[in-house]
Amino acid sequence: MARLKKLINRYLFSEEYPLDARLLNTICLAGLGAILIALVFQLAMKDSDPMVALVMLVIMITLIVILYIKNRFKVYKVGSLIMAILLCDIFIPVGFFFIGGVNSGAPAYFLLGLVVIVLVSKGKILALLLTTNILIILACYYVGKRFDGLVTKLDVTQQTVGHIEAIIVVGLCICASLAVQNIVVSRETKKTEQIIGHLEQERQLSAAILEGNPHFNLLLDNQLRVIDCNTPILDYMGFPSKETFIENFLPTIEGCIPPIQPDGHPSIPLTERIKTTIKEGVCRFECDLIIHGKPVTFSIVMKKVPYRDNFAIVIYLVDLSDLYAARRDAEQASRAKGDFLANMSHEIRTPLNAVIGMTSIGKASDDIERKDYSFRKIEEASVHLLGVINDILDMSKIEANKLELSPVNYNFKKMLRQAMNVTIFRVDERKQQFTMDVDEKIPQFLIGDDQRLAQVITNLLSNAVKFTPEEGSIHLGAYLEREQDGICIIRIEVRDTGIGISEEQQLHLFNSFEQADSGTSRNFGGTGLGLAISKRIVNMMGGDVGIESEFGKGSNFFFTIPAVRGTEPLEGEESAFVNNTYANYFGGHRILLAEDVDINREIVLALLAPTSLVIDCAENGEDAVRLYRENPNSYDMIFMDVQMPIMDGYEATRTIRALDLPRAKDVPIIAMTANVFREDVEKSFESGMNGHIGKPLDIEEVLEILRKYL
Q: Cα–Cα distance between 682 and 656 in angstroms, integer?
């Protein structure tokens, strides 16, 4: 019994067999049960016909054999067809004559045959079997009526039993089939819903991945038809809907491929790439496409993937235009920096050549005027070389975002005169006409970084002098555009009648390491950094720089800055302390100079000799600490170099500050070093120093420091 139950569960409910096969198994098993009941009825009757029982037994055995063979060898359609033919075209017609003909349950069995045919067949086979069965029914009725002796005679009781048997057989078959089908379909529906839900989740996930990808994705079936694509490619290609894109994909893409690629090779058709993908499984290449009339470089990957018992092709397209543009910009910047380094080599070597050459000339000459001339040229070359170095340092600070402003209360007209004085001697040398116009509405005193502002004006004036031919004209103007709540908007402009700048050249004019034309540095010199530095300084001040120029007709550089109205200093607050007034100014004071380079010590001693200062020298930080420890009350100030052997200036300063001696924590220690970046200044203060002086030394800055602390 358990084995029979297992067999029934396997044939009716196991997913080992398709749904159609299980439904047909239901019909077979229901028929077997019904025929078994009919057989029991026949055997229970007193006057039963053994032939009827034999026919029923044969039908049962035949159904069992067909059921086994159909499921064992999985020939569901063939087995069902054989079952329908045997049952409807052989067993039921034969049974018609053995169980009493029209007056028995035979008509019900014919009806059952029609039901079985409908369930087990479709299409033309269904029409053929139905037609055959109906013809057989009509033939049986005709033969039974014409040849009355062929039909078994039944009494009333037998006819009644036959009708009951038929009702039971047909009813059980139909009811069992409907019941089992309902169970099976219910289970299948539930599983189908689960599968659909899972598939929907997978679809949503796939859609999220597909649509979330910023690059372009396509999926083609094995007939090269678009199955799906993401929205970015629709927007990029300008298609209104996915359906339109799917219909026009291949013609559109093929139309976008130019005949020749940028490398000079002929373009390979997309269909050829797809054939390679089908053959090798993957195909990677770069290709230029003409999109909306412009060439766009794509990196394309095609991959063959399984899809619905066949294959599909996934296509990934990545727009490389931004990457290539970035690479071109990087290459251009690299070339610009290479040109810049070449210019720097020229700009640095030129004044060095003057220094070395004039030094040799001065040494070899016995004429005092000739020596003085050499010194003047050495001084001019040194100033020029210092300007080049300062430009490089400023640009380095700008690129590291370490350039800072130092606002002070300053005299605006005085700042303009100082900026003008830097270049006025070159104006005279080139016989140029210089004019200056300062708006009287500009306040006399403003608050801002006057040194950086003078640097910008000097840069503009230097360029104007450089690019204006002899006997040309240069004009410096400063105007008050407006004032509101103590904030003055000041416009400063430098006009010249020089070579001018074309519109194309103006686009790159304020870029770092670039000049308007590659031949500019050869013809006129310069680092190519002045305008970039000037623009950044003005931007930091809250203003902006502009240019009005036409090639060959001169230029007008201008900028506007906001500045806070300042206050007039008290009488005597502005120092008149200048180079020619410091003789014997610091008599009675002693300072300690820590410097490891002989010539640097010699320069400081020579520059400060007129001040009557007493200066002791130490050649490294260790000697400086020793000298101060031995004479702590003798020194009023210490000038400390930073980079020295044995002990550097930072360590020496920290050691002095840690000494348990009078004034060790208070004695002014000033860094005197070529390390001039902001972090160098900060490091000096962190080590305990009071100030910072950069090399090359500005004597006025040195004197101001001395005056401040002595």
A: 19
* Contact assessment for residue 671 and residue 693, using Cβ atoms and an 8 Å cutoff: yes
Give the C-alpha distances (Å, rounded to integers) separating 105 from 85, 101, 131, 259, 417.
20, 8, 22, 82, 130
SS3 669: strand
Question: pLDDT of 28-50, one tens digit each?
Answer: 777 777 677 777 776 776 666 67
Cβ contacts of 544-547, under 8 Å, gap ≥ 24: 545/510, 547/501, 547/506, 547/509
Q: What angle do CA 220, 226, 228 make, to 5 degrees?
A: 95
What is the distance of C-alpha 543 from the center of its chain? Answer: 32
Pairwise CA distance, residues 690 & 684, whole Å: 8
DSSP class of 262: T
Please give the structure tokens belonging to residue 372.
């003085």
Q: Which amino acid is at 593?
A: L
- Under 8 Å CB-to-CB from 67, ≥6 apart: which residues? 11, 25, 28, 29, 32, 79
Going by C-alpha positions, the residue among 492, 509, 525, 515 that lies closest to residue 420 is 492
89 in helix, strand or coil?
A: helix
- Of the candidates 63, 61, 5, 58, the one whose C-alpha atom is nearest the C-alpha of residue 31 is 63
pLDDT in tens, 95-140: 778 777 777 777 877 887 787 787 777 788 888 888 888 898 888 8
Side chain identity at 332, as an amino acid letter? Answer: Q
pTM: 0.44
Tell me what pLDDT residue 212 has.
58
Give Rg (Cα) of the chain. 53
- Rounded Cα–Cα distance for residues 395 and 528 (Å): 11
Residue count (the chain)? 710
Is 494 in contact with 475 (CB distance < 8 Å)? Answer: yes
Q: Tokens 């002086």 sit at which residue?
A: 693
Render pLDDT for 480-514 as a digit per residue (tens, 0 to 9). Answer: 999 988 899 999 999 999 888 887 777 767 765 55
Longest dimension (CA), the chain: 164
